[in-house]
């Protein structure tokens, strides 16, 4: 099992103000699969993603990724884990405004050892002709594709996407999801997406429905559909 999460709990606040955001989450993710966590705003999706990505620490439970337990690691070990294993894609593209598309990707490439060739990746993502543009001169879809290139260029084993199409229109969202499928196929990347968008669930191998910090339902999809 590539990712194994057991009884994951997270609280915010102290004493009488303490709220329980994750109430004992169990999840498994196969290597090379696409898994979608679906749920309404505030249900705890980003918190799960951030814990798996080492951006937040759990209060209880265990998270094992690629055979390594990440809960309980030191912050130096977590930084290394994040650098070597994880790529992040957010709804807000988080590009560096004063760097071109190519430069934005290059600085991320420097973080990894087993990197993907930048020209190959820009071609795959339809960015070659935009490589010398600054983010402000790109459409939303192009900005998100640049963000995906930045996340993928160090060839992470696990790509974590938080509402990756949240700021995009319907057609551009479909293009973006198609590219994520292509990346999974070409590089074997395991992809975990969290979203409130039901339509994204269709492309998953497995869907976890979350509600109020609990898994309400786990659905293994027999015939995942490609994005049409
Ligand atoms: P989702 O991604 O499903 O919208 P989140 O994981 O962002 O949900 O948040 C789940 C709950 O945790 C929400 O009620 C949110 O207000 C709360 N929460 C998230 N981060 C913090 C924080 N740093 N401090 C306090 N509460 C938080
Ligand atoms: P895509 O479908 O790849 O997102 P669009 O069809 O939206 O691309 O954009 C077509 C062209 O218009 C692009 O080459 C892009 O450079 C330009 N463009 C789109 N939106 C903007 C914008 N907000 N600011 C500047 N240029 C833009």
Automatic annotation (TrEMBL):
Domain of life: Bacteria
Alphabetized SUPFAM superfamilies for the sequence: P-loop containing nucleoside triphosphate hydrolases
Keyword annotations: ATP-binding, Nucleotide-binding, Transport
Signal sequence segment: none
A GO CC annotation given for this chain: membrane protein complex
Domain ABC transporter: 3-228
Any GO MF annotation of the entry: ATP hydrolysis activity
Family annotation (InterPro entries): AAA+_ATPase, ABC_transporter-like_ATP-bd, MacB-like_ATP-bd, P-loop_NTPase
Keyword Transmembrane helix: no
One Pfam family per UniProt: ABC_tran
Family membership noted in the UniProt record: Belongs to the ABC transporter superfamily.
UniProt protein name: Putative ABC transport system ATP-binding protein
Organism taxonomic ancestry: Bacteria, Bacillati, Bacillota, Clostridia, Eubacteriales
């Amino acid at each position: 099992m590539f990712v194994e999460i057991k009884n994951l709990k997270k609280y915010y606040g102290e004493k009488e103000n303490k709220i329980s955001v994750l109430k004992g989450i169990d999840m498994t993710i196969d290597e090379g699969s696409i898994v979608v966590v679906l749920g309404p705003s505030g249900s705890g999706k980003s918190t799960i993603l951030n814990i798996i990505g080492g951006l937040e620490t759990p209060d209880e439970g265990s998270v094992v990724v690629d055979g390594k337990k990440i809960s309980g690691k030191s912050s130096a070990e977590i930084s290394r884990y994040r650098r070597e294993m994880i790529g992040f894609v957010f709804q807000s593209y988080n590009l560096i405004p004063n760097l071109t598309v190519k430069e934005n990707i290059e600085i991320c490439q420097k973080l990894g050892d087993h990197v993907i060739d930048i020209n190959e990746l820009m071609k795959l993502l339809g960015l070659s002709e935009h490589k010398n543009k600054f983010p402000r001169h790109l459409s939303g879809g192009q900005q998100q594709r640049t963000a995906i290139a930045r996340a993928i260029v160090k060839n992470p084993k696990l790509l974590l996407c938080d509402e990756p199409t949240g700021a995009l229109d319907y057609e551009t969202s479909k293009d973006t999801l198609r590219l994520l499928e292509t990346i999974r196929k070409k590089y074997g990347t395991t992809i975990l997406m969290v979203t409130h968008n039901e339509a994204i669930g269709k492309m998953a191998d497995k869907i976890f429905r979350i509600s109020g910090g609990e898994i309400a339902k786990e659905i293994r999809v027999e015939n995942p559909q490609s994005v049409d």
